[in-house]
Amino acid sequence: MNGHDHCLQHISSLNSEIQFLTSGGGSKSWGGDVSWWKPEEMKFYYDGQGFMSVHVIETELNIAFYDVFGNVLHKWNTSKQLHSTL
Questions:
Q1: Does the keyword Hydrolase apply (predicted)?
Q2: Contact yes or no for 43/11 (Cβ under 8 A)
């Protein structure tokens, strides 16, 4: 997760399970050009103002991106199986 770019983004890699989540849309948006991203890697892009919520529990990670009015723009989640330490 990062917050540098003035936009909201979810980018994935085709070569790994890494997810790039950007929440930098809290202030003035920059209206950047994203045409060089591969469509299958760019899961979500919004150059308006908004925010991201993160909900973490032992087995799940839930991410949601919102506009300034609280409308959900994009959701992503992942989970893992717990392994016993016995």
A1: yes
A2: yes
